[in-house]
Amino acid sequence: MDSPAPRIVLKYREGRFRLAYDLMKKSGPSPAEFAAIVRDVKSDEGWTAATSSDCETDCDVPVALWKNMLDMMYTGHPDLAWTLLDQSWSTTPKGNAAFVKDFC
Q1: Is pLDDT of 7 > 80?
Q2: Which residue would you say has higher pLDDT here, 96 or 35?
């Protein structure tokens, strides 16, 4: 129900549909916009008690985190997506390993 659906564009090439990265690329957020995204994700009520420093599986994180990460990745800014994760994760880095595994 809360799964984000990033905008993707496909091109038909060589007998199949493929991601059209050139048509999805857009400017990334300004430093001020990025800082606002980090603040919004960090303060999101979607963080749950399960998202703790010892979280190993089924870590509940707000949809806003992975929605923004997907948007950044599909528009050509994977570096910003991973920076968003690092800057907004509300617990120790150990806890995000399960999320990164599931996300990837």
Answers
A1: yes
A2: 35
Q: How confident is the model at residue 11 (pLDDT cuts 50, 70, 90)?
A: very high
Quickly count helices (H) and strands (E) in the chain: 5, 2
Token reading at 38 = 């980090």
Q: Collapsing DSSP states into helix, strand and coil, what is residue 91?
A: coil
- SS3 of 12, please? strand
> Is the Cβ–Cβ distance between 102 and 34 less than 8 Å?
no
Say which amino acid occupies 45: E
- Whether 18 contacts 10, CB under 8 Å: yes
Confidence grade of residue 4 (pLDDT, cut at 50, 70, 90):
confident
What is the domain partition of the chain in residue ranges? 28-103
Q: Which residue has the tokens 């010892």?
A: 54
What CA–CA distance (Å, rounded) separates 75 from 101? 21
